[in-house]
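Running low. Any example?
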Amino acid sequence: MLREAILHALDAARTPQQLLERIQRRWWTHGYARALAEGELSSPVGVAVGLVRPSTDCPDPMCEDGTTLHLDDACPKCAERRADRRRRPVPAQRENDAELRWWECDGTDCSAAGKGPQPDHGLCQHCQNRAEQTEIQRATAGLVAEAETAQEAERLRQTIRWERMLDEAHAEHAERSRSAQDQTKAEQRAATEAEEVRRLREQLIREHPELAAYAQQQS
């Protein structure tokens, strides 16, 4: 079903880029983002089809959700339909009955109208979604900045840890080198002393042959 909807949308004089823009626009303006956040997105396939299929509200094939593509301007047929809707007579209602009253959106450059109780924010669904999108983008930018700051701080901590490990490794290496040098000097000193003892023993035997047996016992 979704594949056929995509192919049909591409056959309706739309490029893949235009189809992508349609999906991104409808995701917010049709309230799907809010439905997902509130756990009310019950039919993912149906939503996907709704995101890609051509609009059935306007007979103009070049109308893209209220905008004429080749003119990049508001669709006159959609504007006329909205005007006709506003000119329709409103049935007489009781004075205290606010559920069926018409109200106009307070959004900038928005001519949408609604029927029933006007929301406290005074915005239609499209403008409300746009305001929420702006707030989400602002909050997201703040979170990204905080994440980058946290990552930079973590990199700094890692650098400090690494430098400390290197310093400790260098100190340990230097200590081992000093220990090895001290060991070598001790061995050299012991060898020199042993050589001196041997030389003295040989000199003693030459000068006092009678002590040769005693010297052999000491060795």
Notes: The first strand starts at residue 63 and ends at 64.
